[in-house]
Design brief:
The complex is a heterotrimer. By secondary structure, chain A is an alpha/beta fold. Helices cover 40% and strands 18% of the residues of chain A. Chain A has one domain (28-286): Aldehyde Dehydrogenase, Chain A, domain 1. Chain A has helices spanning 47-66, 69-85, 87-98, 102-122, 126-130, 163-174, 189-199, 215-224, 241-249, and strands at residues 28-32, 38-43, 132-133, 140-148, 151-155, 178-182, 208-211, 230-232, 254-256, 278-286. Chain A has a 5-stranded parallel sheet, sandwiched between helices. In chain A, a hairpin with a 6-residue loop joins strand 3 (132-133) and strand 4. In chain A, helix 1 packs across helix 8 (215-224). The termini of chain A are far apart. In chain B, helix 3 (63-76) packs antiparallel against helix 13, helix 6 packs parallel to helix 8 (181-194) and helix 10 runs parallel beside helix 11 (248-265). Helices cover 45% and strands 10% of the residues of chain B. In chain B, helix 5 (121-127) links the parallel strand 2 (113-117) and strand 3 (134-138). By secondary structure, chain B is an alpha/beta fold. Chain B contains 13 helices and 8 strands. Chain C has 2 domains: 22-259 and 460-475, Aldehyde Dehydrogenase, Chain A, domain 1 (3-Layer(aba) Sandwich), CATH 3.40.605; 264-450, Aldehyde Dehydrogenase, Chain A, domain 2. Chain C has helices spanning 58-76, 81-97, 99-110, 114-135, 163-176, 191-202, 217-225, 238-248, 273-285, 305-316, 337-352, 403-411, 426-435, 468-472; strands at residues 22-23, 25-27, 30-32, 39-43, 48-53, 153-157, 180-184, 210-212, 231-235, 254-258, 264-267, 297-301, 356-358, 374-377, 394-400, 418-422, 440-443, 462-463. Chain C has a 7-stranded mixed sheet with strand order 13-14-15-12-11-16-17, sandwiched between helices. Chain C is globular.
């Protein structure tokens, strides 16, 4: 035994544009376990951090959406690979943050990793499954293909800090969108570690941005932001959801409404979280000699 | 290779190539330059061209406009017989019809021309004396054009000597499709020279592109420009011996070509769709096309002709209907 | 002989339509009186009053929604899908049988040329019903999950630019998927929707499956706000779309929006120029430019600008403006005085901001609302006529030098409904189409529509698709998987 060595603690920061800044506001808040025990001080993201994240996400959109579907699939699979290497760390953080037993935490981490694998495999199937040729009544070749919506703001689930987070983030990225995520307020630590995974898994800077803090505070800024194309309100405070949807109407954002209660994230998600962030583009061309 | 009609041809000095009009003087300086020019013309999207003529085909031409269109169409007809079985008698009866299309109605205008094979041009000319009706003769080994140039030129000179006022030549489609554009050009130039008539203006040259064999509208545009640059007075769709003959999309592209050519060079060239135009409705659709694509300047027999035979009787029947207010039948117009 | 080819007037007879002096609402299979103050609908080409139309109040809308709910629960929902399909087939055939009547009525009420109502609006409307009829018993194969279920009652609000066609785009997929509808036609163009009600009766469509409530904005708001509506579908302006999105916020209502546009029509120097010119004309002058996907921004490569503009002006000179019922009319009347005022205002702003206005010599009729086809050159991307939707026959011309610049300018808009590309180079078409942020890209063509082909916008042009397999999703519950 005799380990007198003092552990080196991690500073939990935001993940924006591929870097790990502190909140520009300088604010932090205390993260505790469900019993109130101190876990860490997390960065408390401000509206300006959200603004910076949107700028980063917009800048990253062209390259990420323009990458081949095969390439995006490999990058997302790489995320699963790197997560697997940090399996134990995620288990510890999920167990501590959510107050889960070791085996239940492990099940959540396993499912989170497997979810990346699931979506990694979707990237190059979407075009075939959701697109196709349209037999128009005229001398035209006409086809429709799914394309990413753009910059998606995601208010991540408040309870399921890792599996829930991955379940809402991965489909956004798989479709070719870039994301600005506000993590669970009370359980933000696995998100920060996920940021470290993303930073080391070939996900280009700015494609995924993770803000720890309060969805109730940042949500309205994202919902009203004219350069955000869609918003997932899954983790929005129930009493605020309607107002956020109203704000989102200002720029005709695509909105995913919050569920009545947080779902069981271990269920197979099908296409339900992919299609809300995909547009359909239809292209016509004449057929002549 | 020598040829029986002109054994010395290979040795003869090649005259300098006649240059096209400005601003296109240099485009025939080499095969490569000519090819680059013709292939640099804007492409034609077939579906778009067809959709344009489909919309123009819905123009509703009624009452006074219809009466005007029918008389104009009659005056633009090149009344044609191009049969192996043609005889002087047949040509004379056609000429009579050309002068007085509707014996029962002297207000009916005469047609523009009678179109025959070269050997019968003299018969036609004689039958049309004291009229403004032209004699058009097909020449240059019509309809295939598959003969040596010397034969073709002899064919032309013969027809002109027989009294033809207009020569309807065919281009060498084989050469065109093989990309030997300068050969096609030189031949048209040579034919144009062979149209010379001592003491008179040269016979008018109509250049038949035989668009049914060129197949694509891109080729129609290129061939139109080639023929205009070479000095053709008219560009004509078809011999009538190949299907499809005149179609509205082809006519559209040719009308665009003459419009653009005049805008660029100042020289106006006529257009003659021929073959397959059988009904008044077809003829009126062509006139609408002329009116809205090339413009009213082309709406005279000097600049637009309809190569046809059975069309004339349908025009006459429709004319009678407008005049009398009731329908009539084939026994009320003459059989040719 | 220099007589011109003057086309004699060729008016379509209006005797085929029988417009009643007044119309009620169509609720539960019957025409009933509305409780609001009736309004008149006017022929925009003559300002002649065509008829007086009932105005539906909240209570009227409530009656219509209750009828639709009853029909959904008792009849239409439980019905064998194949039978639902047969009703739609019947409607398609009835529209074809009465096509002439619909076309004339549409041109009278809307002001659009009979050539377009006859050759585009009405045949396409029938085609939409025919297409969706076949889906009714094949939804399991639509790729939208197993056993897809209808939403219930759909509240639909449609615009005045394609009154019958927009009705078909809304009603056909809703019914095919098993929903019932309450539809509000535009205030200025209610007549073909009311004639459609008669078609529903001829088809023996069960009462309440289709309900038509006429009225102005308040009626539309009542439809959208009714708490027993499960689905809201709207086509119209982005401004109204925003307010509808706000109105349904926090409800269970599924929403699809088809809103405005400011489409770029990009002409490269290797384009088939004559067809491109046709495409420009069709893009912005079709239906007087009252088209959300109109190609109202011409982006022409600088090295062919003069040539293209010269051709375009020559071509516009041949457009025939006048009596919408004349079969040779290309440009009809502007639908309303309000719309005309907006077109005038934006055009004046265009001139004031420094763009050059060109209009052909064009005589406008004395009565009615008219605006000549108009081209603005020297337009800068900052000008309002390059950014705002005019919804009229007004083209703004901008130039570009490279493909990248073309794409950047095309995408430089808050809209994203449609775009056009003209070039003979196939690989360029695919590359540009890939980079344009627009829901419909027409390459070497423009303003083509088909029921099999999904239509709808990116960005602030709305969300959801109409047509094709994709359009069905708007009227079905989210699949679990």
């Amino acid at each position: 035994m005799s380990t007198d060595r003092l552990a080196v603690r991690k500073t939990y920061k935001l993940y924006v544009n591929g870097a790990f800044p502190r909140s520009e506001s300088g604010r932090t808040y205390e993260v505790t376990d469900p019993k109130g025990g101190f876990l860490a001080n997390a960065s408390w993201a401000s509206r300006k951090d959200a603004r910076d994240a949107v700028v980063a996400a917009r800048a990253a959109f062209a390259k990420w959406s323009g990458a081949t579907a095969y390439n995006r699939g490999q990058v997302l699979y790489r995320v699963a690979e790197v997560m697997e290497g940090r399996h134990a760390q995620f288990c510890d953080e999920v167990a501590a943050g959510e107050g889960l037993s070791g085996s239940r935490a492990r099940a959540a981490v396993d499912a989170a990793i497997d979810r990346w694998v699931w979506y990694a495999g979707w990237t190059d199937k979407l075009g075939a499954v959701l697109g196709g040729a349209n037999p128009v009544a005229g001398p035209y070749f006409d086809f429709s293909l799914p394309e990413p919506t753009g910059v998606v703001a995601v208010l991540a689930p408040q309870r399921s800090s890792l599996l829930g987070l991955v379940s809402v983030l991965a489909p956004v990225l798989a479709g070719g969108n870039t994301a600005v995520v506000v993590t669970s307020r009370t359980r933000p630590l696995p998100a920060v570690t996920l940021g470290e995974v993303l930073a080391t898994s070939d996900v280009p800077a700015g494609v995924a941005n993770l803000l720890t803090g309060d969805a109730g505070e940042i949500g309205p800024w994202l919902a009203e932001h004219d350069d955000v194309d869609a918003i997932d309100l899954t983790g929005a405070p129930a009493e605020q959801a309607m107002e956020l949807e109203r704000l989102a109407a200002g720029s005709i954002k695509r909105v995913v409404r919050p569920p009545a209660e947080e779902p069981d994230w271990s269920a197979n998600p099908g296409l339900t979280r992919l299609t809300p962030f995909l547009e359909t583009k239809t292209v016509w061309h004449p057929m002549g000699l | 290779m020598t040829h029986v009609l002109d054994p010395d041809a290979p040795a003869a000095a090649i005259p300098p190539r006649r240059e096209p009009l400005a601003p296109y003087r240099d485009v025939t300086r080499s095969d490569a330059a000519f090819r680059a020019f013709l292939h640099g013309l804007p492409g034609v999207d077939q579906v778009g061209a067809e959709s344009r003529v489909a919309v123009l085909g819905t123009r509703s031409i009624k009452t006074t406009a219809k009466a005007w269109a029918i008389d104009t169409a009659i005056s633009m007809v090149d009344l044609t017989t191009l049969e192996g079985a043609d005889t002087p008698g047949k040509v004379r009866s056609l000429a009579a019809k050309a002068r007085r299309p509707d014996p029962g109605d002297p207000t009916t205008p005469p047609v523009a021309a009678v179109c025959v094979y070269g050997d019968l041009a003299g018969v036609a000319k004689e039958a049309l004396t004291c009229t403004d009706i032209s004699v058009a003769a097909v020449a240059t080994a019509f309809p295939s054009g598959r003969a040596s140039r010397a034969v073709k030129l002899a064919d032309v000179r013969d027809a002109v000597a027989n009294g033809a006022d207009e020569i309807d030549m065919v281009i060498d489609r084989g050469a065109f499709l093989a990309g030997r554009y300068l050969d096609v050009y030189d031949e048209i130039v040579a034919v144009k020279e062979a149209c010379a008539r001592p003491g008179k203006d040269p016979a008018h040259l109509k250049v038949i592109l035989e668009t049914g064999e060129l197949v694509t509208l891109d080729n129609v545009r290129r061939a139109s420009w080639l023929a205009m640059l070479a000095g053709g007075d008219f560009i004509k769709t078809s011999t009538g011996k190949v299907s499809p003959a005149a179609t509205l999309p082809v006519c559209l592209v040719m009308l665009e070509a003459v419009r653009d050519f005049r805008a660029a060079t100042g020289r106006q060239v006529g257009v003659k769709p021929a073959g397959g135009i059988r009904t008044t409705k077809d003829a009126i659709k062509h006139l609408v096309l002329v009116n809205e694509v090339a413009g009213p300047d082309w709406l005279t027999p000097d600049w637009f002709r309809l190569g046809a035979s059975s069309l004339l009787n349908d025009l006459l029947l429709q004319r009678q209907k407008l005049r009398t207010g009731h329908y009539s039948g084939p026994d009320h117009v003459s059989v040719d | 002989m220099t007589q011109l080819f003057e086309y004699a007037p060729a008016p379509e007879s209006r005797s085929i339509v029988d417009i009643a002096p007044s119309y009620g609402l169509f609720v539960d299979g019957e025409f009933v009186d509305g409780s609001g103050t009736p309004f008149t609908t006017v022929n925009p080409a003559t300002e002649e009053v065509l008829s007086e139309v009932a105005s539906a109040t909240d209570a009227d809308v409530d009656r219509a929604v209750r009828a639709a709910r009853r029909a959904f629960t008792r009849v239409w929902g439980p019905m064998r899908p194949a039978d639902r399909g047969k009703y739609l087939f019947r409607i398609a055939r009835l529209l074809q049988e009465r096509a002439r009547e619909f076309a004339v009525l549409e041109s009278l009420d809307n002001g659009k040329p009979i050539r377009e109502s006859r050759d585009v609006d009405v045949p396409l409307a029938a085609a939409h019903f025919f297409y969706h009829a076949g889906w009714a018993d094949k939804l399991d194969w639509a790729g939208l999950g197993p056993g897809p279920k209808p939403l219930g009652v759909a509240g639909q609000v449609i615009p005045w630019n394609f009154p019958l066609l927009m009705l078909a785009w809304k009603v056909a997929p809703a019914l095919a998927t098993g929903n019932t509808v309450v539809l509000k036609p535009a205030e200025t163009t209610p007549l073909t929707a009311l004639l459609f009600a008669e078609v529903c009766r001829q088809a023996d469509l069960p009462p309440g499956v289709v309900n038509i409530v006429t009225g102005a904005g308040d009626t539309g708001r009542a439809v959208v706000a009714h708490e027993d509506v499960d689905k809201v579908a709207f086509t119209g302006s982005t401004e109204v779309g925003r307010s509808i999105a706000r109105a349904v916020a926090g409800t269970r209502k599924k929403l699809t929006l088809e809103l405005g546009g400011k489409a770029a029509n990009i002409v490269f120097d290797d384009a088939p120029i004559d067809q491109a010119v046709e495409g420009i004309v069709r893009g912005v002058f079709f239906n007087q430019g009252h088209v959300c996907c109109a190609g109202s921004r011409l982006l022409v490569q600088e090295n062919v600008h003069d040539e293209v503009i010269a051709s375009l002006q020559r071509r516009i000179g041949t457009l025939r403006l006048g009596d919408p019922l004349d079969k040779n009319t290309d440009i009809g009347a502007i639908n309303s005085a309000e719309q005309l005022a907006r077109i005038r205002e934006l055009s004046d702003v265009g001139e004031a901001e420094g763009a050059s206005r060109w209009q052909p010599a064009c005589e406008l009729p004395d009565r009615g609302w008219w605006f000549p086809p108009t081209v603005f050159t020297d337009v800068s991307p900052a000008h309002r006529i390059a950014r705002d939707e005019v919804f009229g026959p007004v083209l703004s011309v901008l130039t570009f030098r490279t493909p990248d610049e073309a794409v950047a300018k095309a995408n430089n808009t808050t809209y994203g409904l449609s775009a056009g590309i003209w070039t003979e180079k196939g690989s360029r078409i695919l590359a540009i189409a890939d980079r344009l942020r627009a829901g419909v890209v027409w390459a070497n063509t423009f303003n083509e529509f088909d029921p099999t082909s999904p239509f709808g916008g990116y960005k602030q042009s709305g969300y959801g698709r109409e047509g094709g397999r994709h359009g069905l999703a708007a009227y079905l519950q989210e699949a679990d998987k």
